[in-house]
Amino acid sequence: MNASSRLAGGRLRLAQLQKLNPALFLLFVLLALIVILGPVYRTPAGIMSFLQRAAPLIILTCGQSFVLIAGGFDLSAGALITLVVIACALIANGDPQLAWMAVAVIYAIGLGVGLLNGIIVARLKVPSIIATLGTLLSVKGAAMYWSGGAPSGYLPDNLRSVGRGVLSDIPILETLPIAVVVLVVFVGLCFWLMHATNYGRLLLMVGDNATAAHLAGVPVNRVRVIAFVISSLSAVTAGLLLGGFSGVSVEVGTGYDLQAIAAAVIGGVVLLGGRGSIAGACIGALCLYALFTVLNLVGFPAPLRVAVQGLILIVAAALTARSLRDKV
After folding, report:
1. What is the extent of the structural domain holding 293?
2. What pLDDT, in 10s, does the model give residues 237-247?
């Protein structure tokens, strides 16, 4: 092989590396730190436990990504998670026979909240931040009223097993948390919808330029409404896992909406819409959860994690603004 061939090959490999999501390198560094700082994560069971705890954030980030790619925000997801957990506890109240009815009710609630958000944003032309902030307050108020301001009732074992149950005697892995199975199925559905259907292409068009998409015949309102529905259904699924793992609490969903947005932008989803992927969203969510795990292992104060999220969002917004200026 002559020098010109080697040079061409080197340039090709460099171009391929540049196409990789930068968050992937950050994830490798954070995972290496976790393995060094926490010996428990050096085993298959430790890795599965990590994924089990990260599953709600990954699922919520995937759902939030649909709204972000469409050029919007969904700030109501955290409040919906809280309502989901409270509703399951109050409806089932420890009775396994009522578990499926509780699941049906909470997914119906999630569908209703998503439709409401989407219609307000798409039809009434209310900015998504304002619309979903109003929904956040309404949903949180409903949760507080329903629960009387304090946790009541409890989740039956068959519901709790979704978040904390494990499948035993799995080859190589030893144990497989049910939450990880739910995670794989949900992420697979999101990936298919975003990258293997016409809807995903339309969503990217709407996020990139809604006016041009409308002139091209894209049903912009319908695309946006579906994005908000997906986001709400992801919050319901995340709430099921969190309720099963952590139990009933009126603060169980607090902060998850901002965490999902921060995770999405880490993974390359552009805040103003038009660009992003489900793989990137998953990588971003894993990065954020891995960062929190590292901070916890080194004794970093928990309240300062909120400051870390804020810095991530500020940097992401600054990078987005800079890229838009460069295009002009």
Report:
1. 54-156+169-327
2. 999 999 888 77
